[in-house]
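Thread title: Can someone regenerate the structure for this chain?

I was given the following input by a collaborator and told the matching structure tokens would be attached. They weren't. Posting the sequence so someone can regenerate them.
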Amino acid sequence: MLGGIQIGLQIGAGVALAAAVAGLARWLARRRRLTPEKREQRRRLAVNASGRLCDAMITEVAATVFFYTYSVRGVQYAASQDAGSLAELLPPAPERLIGAAGVKYSTGNPANSILICEEWSGLRKLPPIASNAVNVASANVVSINNDAVGHQPQNAALAEGAER
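Best answer:
Regenerated them for you:
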């Protein structure tokens, strides 16, 4: 009787092992079929779905590749993201995005982060590009020297006070 139980356990363990090996083989075959682009899309969407938000600083933009830094619990991270597959979501001049942005990072691995995905963007909205550079230059001069109220620059006000 005892021998029958041992043989039953051995058969059950063999069946369980065979099922585990078959499941592993199926998972590996399925994983290999995914293209790198599809794997990257899945990574972005997973970080978007369960990630946390924090502030980031975009330090450089090369075509559609963003280089950025962010800090999580006192640890500084430097990362990059190739947003080439998301080009339709990017502004016409992505190099203007250098500066502050939002980032989503994985709570289990804070080095796994995104600036943009199909469903979310941490990139700030840019004002439209001025069509005439002369108007932009003259607008800057006006905004520096006079404001809407008519205040004078501080140096002029100090000079008037010194003459009295």
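Residues 37-114 form one domain.
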